[in-house]
Amino acid sequence: MNPAAILTQLGDKATSGKALPPVDQWHPAHCGEMDLVICADGRWMHEGTPIGRARLVHMLSRVLRREPDGSYCLVTPAEKVTIQVEDRPFLAVDCSRIESDSAPTELGEAEPGQTESGQSEPLPDVWQLVTDQGDVVRLEGETCLTLSETPDGLWLPEVPVRFGLAARLHRNLYYRLLESAETHEQDDGSLTLGFMSGGRFQILGQLAADEVEV
């Protein structure tokens, strides 16, 4: 099977509307492997050749999921094929900050972000990331940046996106966020670098104690 054949099989399930196909609810038979690799730099390669049609890549990304054993599969209601991913299937390429709304509210029962006296408390700002396939990920709650090792042996941030899939921060976005990063000193003298979003510290990197300039 080739990538275009998957979309033909899916019909409008992959292309209609903004809602993602429910690939987490599809449990077809496994039909082997496809010679398709998602490179660490975001390129999709089929049989050694880059897929030049951005729309085809986008549609395929909508039917991608990660299996419990860590493998990556393209899934339709009828079949499932395994593909290879060098690092993470997506790249986070842009970000924006959603400022909190701290407008006062009427006295009464306290609501989230409000004290018992009815005074409004500022809600934490939230940053949202945008992936190379158009996913918007808000850094709040359980969705946060974590560090993981790249194929090059570097420890860089990633963020969960959907269906077990994650996005690695693109180098340009990573350095852009580092420019305004906060540093937190740890008990052992090491430093963590990051920023606040949704009331949680979002980690961008770490410096061991012997790497910290005095």
From TrEMBL:
Residues 101-123 are annotated as: Disordered. This is DUF1285 domain-containing protein. It holds the Pfam family DUF1285_C. Residues 21-87, 128-201 form the DUF1285 domain.
